[in-house]
Amino acid sequence: MIARIDTASACVWMLLMALGLIAVSSATLHLANTQINPYVLKHVFFMIVAAIVFIGVVQTPLDVFNRFHKIFYLLTLLLSILVLVPWIGLEAGGGRRWIDLKVATLQVSELARLLIPLFVAGRIAANREALMTRTGGVIKLIFLVGIVLGLIFLQPDFGSVVLIGMVTIGMLFLAGVRMRDLVLMGALGLPVFGYFLYERRNRLAAYLDTWAHASDEGYQLSQSLIAFGRGEFTGQGLGDGVQKVLYLPTPHNDFIFSVIVEEVGFVGGAFVLAVLLGLVFRCFWIGKKALESKHDFAGYVCYGAGLMLGLQSFIHIGVAMGALPTKGLTLPFLSYGGNSLIVSSALVALVCRAHIEMTQPKLPKV
């Protein structure tokens, strides 16, 4: 099986895992009270779990995921409801987004980033002709995904709502759904978008005029922009960043890219971006080849994985640069956090499995 795996995707995945360990080590250096950094230890543990998940997914035929895609939707729906129950969901930072599993915490919106694309890929593979010719089929699929997104919105986690919603629309577009149906779905979502803009008007004002709000709503973004300015072309040196120590909130999560650019400059930031883009384009390439070889579910899974990793990276980096309003999204593979790392690794593993089945069509199904 290892000999048939997509070498390019696997190597980029391992490179990003290594870069993530370095980035987390540097971003949390000032937080460690002992000689052994507890954040690094936890991140190494997350890497081991992610590697185990990666191997497990690669070894599992995609037909298994396709067969259970409806179950994945129901599981996501159930967890999205349970996390809102006060004695089940954990509340932190003004949101209720985690379920305590005793040995670890499960962030439901992160799991949804894996399971919803699998569900959408399954529905497209099973009903592609109907989706391309009937508005009702598109409305039904969007409605089902919208229920989950509505529950995630209540946590609240608007960043994940936007991300999963964009990935769903992107997958439908790549599947050949009529543009008029997609425009109709977008029009139906305008009231929700308008409500969000009203609720987040202070944050939007800070985005439009960051320095006028540098002491309140624009604080995170202003400190991130300072980190970019300090980084210049080659950076201050790995581990020598200042913004992460006293100024930049959650430097190891939502603003890890700012820390990277401050310490290794434009060169380092461009390298990280190039590696992520390489992985995304590889996902799309394998997806295109899978569809050409009549592996429909595999193709749409690859498209979903590429969209998820690409859009999440785009939003994270866009927020750090001030190109997008502030949202709490991690940078795949590089931010600290087990849920994000495991889900991102599983997405790459699905792409690797698609490549295996595409190049070895006679593999037995389970």
Describe the structure.
This protein has 366 residues and is mainly α. Helices cover 69% and strands 4% of the residues. The chain has helices spanning 7-27, 38-58, 62-67, 69-82, 108-133, 135-153, 158-174, 179-188, 190-199, 201-208, 219-231, 243-246, 256-292, 296-321, 338-359, and strands spanning 89-92, 95-100, 105-107. The chain has a three-stranded antiparallel sheet with strand order 1-2-3. Helix 4 crosses helix 5 (108-133) and helix 13 (256-292) runs antiparallel to helix 14 (296-321). The longest helix has 37 residues, at 256-292. It is globular and about 55 Å long.
Please supply descriptive tags for the structure shown above.
366 residues, mainly alpha, 3-stranded antiparallel sheet
The separation of the N and C termini measures 16 Å
Number of strands: 3
Helix fraction, binned, reads 55-70%
Q: How do the SSEs run, as a string of H and E?
A: HHHHEEEHHHHHHHHHHH
For this structure, the quaternary state is single chain
Strand order of the largest sheet: 1-2-3
What does the overall shape look like? globular
Rounded to an integer in angstroms, the radius of gyration calculated over CA atoms is 20 Å
Class inferred from helices and paired strands: mainly alpha
Q: Which parts are unreliable, with pLDDT below 50 for 5 consecutive residues or more? A: none
- Relative strand content: under 5%
Q: What's the number of helices?
A: 15
Biggest sheet features: 3 strands, antiparallel
Give the overall pLDDT as a whole number.
Answer: 89
